[in-house]
Amino acid sequence: MNSKFKGTGVALVTPFHKQGTIDFSALGKLIEYTLEGGVNYLVVQGTTAETATLTKEEKQAVSQFVIDTVDKRVPLVIGVGGNNTQDIINQLRIVSYEGYDAILSVTPYYNKPQQRGLYLHYKNLAAVSPLPIIMYNVPGRTSVNMKAETTLDIACEFDNIIGIKEASGNIEQIMDIIRNRPKNFLVISGDDLLTAPLLAMGADGVISVSANAYPKEVSQLVNAGLKGDFGRMRELHYKITDITKALFADGNPSGIKAVLEIKGIIANNLRLPLVKVEKNLYNTLTTLVQELETAN
Fold first, then answer.
1. Is residue 165 flagged as an active site residue?
2. Is the pTM of this model over 0.90?
3. Which of 33, 100, 119, 165 is catalytic?
4. Any idea where the domains of the chain sit in the sequence?
5. In whole angstroms, what is the distance from residue 66 CA to residue 79 CA?
6. Is the pLDDT of residue 1 over 80?
7. Set 136, 214, 257, 282: catalytic member
């Protein structure tokens, strides 16, 4: 099971029409583009998907559309998280996740729970989840950091919690997890810019935002790192470093949607409270996209 999620996962965006409805045609085009680029699995309804702005009915429609479009060609992960443990438990009990292979569940946000609260949160999810769970630590969004000790306690105690997407940006913390994790527990980069150094330390891949637009480049980088070809990995890392930095300069997914529009894949439409990147950044992104295309 765990090997399904080694390599490159894509945190899929949700394309919208100008009037705000979901553009399923564009979503289908994006899925095919990422699969052709060689990614290993897709992550649906994560942060990058603007999931917080989707209705229950839209989430169900997107979920089923991805299942039907992918048609078992790659594994699928679906985001199921929140800051109300009991509500997530209810979802895991009631909602059908047939067609998906794992759940990505972010640490509870806003409440700012203690480490013991984080431990108990995942313990309760593990008790009811119909699918393996990948935890997601992203303190920049949640205002709470799950420490290495807590992650390792959970990893050692619950067999159906199979990994963590780590986006703390704390190299020392992530290194501790990689070094002391139980066998087969996945450590997945949640930060595109840190993917190469984390692979060099023994991480298992990335759940990537930039792979929406650059699936081939990110996949090749990750594959090189997993094979221990660090020279090639560094070459690919620096090739996409500038575009990766720029697409996060005015928030996510505003940056990646701008790049996807520049590349002609989807329209650059977001739902409030998110807005499009500023014009100067859009122009910078356009230049960087053109430079990468010329280099290729």
1. yes
2. yes
3. 165
4. 2-226
5. 13
6. no
7. 136
